[in-house]
Amino acid sequence: MTDSSGYREQSLPGMYFIDGTCICCGVCTTYAPALFAVNLEKEIGYVQRQPQDKKEEIAVRKALANCPVSAIREYEENKPNSIQGGLV
Fold first, then answer.
1. Does the reported pTM lie above 0.70?
2. Main-chain dihedrals φ then ψ at residue 22, nearest 5 degrees
3. What stretch of H or E contains 38?
4. CA 77, CA 87: separation in Å to the nearest integer?
5. Domains in the chain, please, with CATH?
């Protein structure tokens, strides 16, 4: 289920989330397997853990950049200064 922003409630709350356009392709888990998960039965991807350090932040940004349907999203108001320049 998603709300009006596209936030998928299965994603752990935080800066990143996967919206309702997800096609469950697994790109997110390829780049950041500790942070993303897919439920093949329900055909959804979701954030299972938010990044905790710069290395994980880079992995999430790579997944975001490579998602074929741009389903990995971030809340702009939560974006720390350290990643505003981009890490990809």
1. yes
2. -55, 135
3. strand 36-39
4. 18
5. 16-78 (3.30.70.20)
Structure-block tokens of residue 46: 């979701």
Residue type at position 45: G
Residue 10 CA: distances (Å) to CA of 32, 33, 58, 88? 17, 16, 22, 25
Other CB atoms within a 10 A radius of the CB of residue 40 amount to 9
- Give φ, ψ of 67 to 5 degrees: -65, 125
Convert the pLDDT of each residue in 19-73 to its tens digit.
Answer: 989 999 999 999 999 999 998 888 889 999 999 999 999 999 999 999 999 999 9
Length of the chain counted residue by residue = 88
Please classify residue 25 by burial: count the beta carbons closer than 10 Å to its beta carbon, then call 0-12 exposed, 13-18 middle and 19+ buried.
middle
Neighbours of 44 (CB within 10 A): 20
Handedness of CA 34, 17, 27, 88 (dihedral sign): negative
